[in-house]
Amino acid sequence: MTLTWQKSSFSGGSGSGECVELAAGRSGTVHLRESDNPTTVLTADAAGLAALLKEIKSGGFDRAG
């Protein structure tokens, strides 16, 4: 299956290569990758993606110091 990747609208336009890209998969899956490392892909279903986004928004992945 060939995926069609879309750059996040929140990605910077500075050309720094720091972009999150998304692609829709089969059976409701979503694929995520970072543009500077396109061979590493995270795949999630709708519930998994919602949980990931909730954790990111809550600061659950913020690093201390």
TrEMBL record:
It comes from the Bacteria. InterPro entries: DUF397. The lineage of its organism: Bacteria, Bacillati, Actinomycetota, Actinomycetes, Kitasatosporales. This is DUF397 domain-containing protein. Residues 3-57 form the DUF397 domain. Pfam families: DUF397 (PF04149).
